[in-house]
Amino acid sequence: MPSDQPIGSLFPRLFQRIADSIVIGESIFIDDNLSGNYTLLDYAYEGAQKLTFPNILRFTATIICLDGSMTATINGRTFQVGKDDLLLVKNGSIVERVTCSANLKTIAMAFADWKQGELMGRQIMDAESFLVHRSIPVQLHLESSLRESYVRLYQEVKLLCEKAQGPYRDALIGHFLCMSSDLFLSMLDEAGKNEESRSREQEIYLKFMDDLQLYASRERSVSFYADRCCVSPKHFSKMVRLASGKVPVTLIKDRVIIEAKALLSSTQMSVREIADTLHFQTDSFFCRYFRQKTGMTPTAFREGQSAPESINDCA
Hints:
Elements: E1 22-24, E2 28-32, E3 55-56, E4 60-67, E5 70-74, E6 77-81, E7 85-89, E8 94-100, E9 105-111, H1 122-131, E10 138-141, H2 144-163, H3 166-192, H4 200-215, H5 222-228, H6 233-244, H7 248-266, H8 271-277, H9 283-294, H10 298-303
Antiparallel strand pairs: 1-2, 2-9, 3-8, 4-7, 4-9, 5-6, 5-8, 7-10
């Protein structure tokens, strides 16, 4: 898949002028819209790419909502994010829809590649190890006193970044990211203690949704996902249906289609390249699969119309 970079992709569209952002190379982007009247989805700068949905994130992101609200559908789950909420979304997630209130105020951080974590050292390894066993995205709530302290820290760091230069500025940002990582991991750990109250069907369903993010492009059998949950396909199907109201086959197809739509709407890949990426044997089979689920061909979807399939649609 193409590797879009955050400073040429999504995050600069969300906040203020690019010159006001904290950027390190092509891998780290930090910004806010705490001052001025900029809103999350209205901002655009010269040369910005059109924001389309569904959209595959090429970076891991943390968004802290300080006022207002936003609703985001990510990886088939809908999150209502309100004041003092934190949303953590991993690289590779599919954002299907985002809406927000006019008064939304946020701090957001984007990391194009967590492996470029030289600034964060141990925290990067701890985070990757911790998150691999979590249901992602993760939504947390900050107590008001913690939120106020964190915002003050962020604002001080931003002021200091204006004074520091070169490697000293990068080191300053690295220390801030380390502190942020430790704080968020601590919150995740505390939240994890409450997950023991989850029902068995909820655990299996969330595990299934996470596995779909990782494997749906190449694994479409129910038995594969049942094996990963260490249960029989019959029991797996029953648990998923109890938790979601849908059978696994439907959820697998939904995920494959949303990945296909994301690639069609946010990349210049050909239909054949997308079919290969999603491990279909032929592009013709991919076209039939897509049309059966959506009622239109991949080409028609990309063009934004439900025109009848032409000979060239699957060429």
